[in-house]
């Protein structure tokens, strides 16, 4: 009887993990917690409600908490020779600094990155990472 209960428990846990993964629930909570820490709203519930409504309209690509200038600054920090280009490793390292969830870090690791990346392509890669797509 104890073995059967353990099997049922394991099955329920596996189903729950699949559900959470399929709907990217953990990533959603990580994103929301990052936004809360960044914005520090006085009305946390109201902020979360508005953010969830906005995400429904914007989709995952609209959830960027970085400004265009901040993305350019990250790019510039990793452009050690100031050539306006990052090599593959520099680009992946820069993307890792922007990624804020385990899923996004995995996306960076799987991402197919060109040998040389300019700032426009870097921004596109950032969007892929934040959307959780490995391209």
Automatic annotation (TrEMBL):
<dbReference type="InterPro" id="IPR002048">
    <property type="entry name" value="EF_hand_dom"/>
</dbReference>
<feature type="domain" description="EF-hand">
    <location>
        <begin position="66"/>
        <end position="101"/>
    </location>
</feature>
<dbReference type="GO" id="GO:0005509">
    <property type="term" value="F:calcium ion binding"/>
</dbReference>
<dbReference type="InterPro" id="IPR039879">
    <property type="entry name" value="EFC10"/>
</dbReference>
<dbReference type="InterPro" id="IPR011992">
    <property type="entry name" value="EF-hand-dom_pair"/>
</dbReference>
<protein>
    <recommendedName>
        <fullName>EF-hand domain-containing protein</fullName>
    </recommendedName>
</protein>
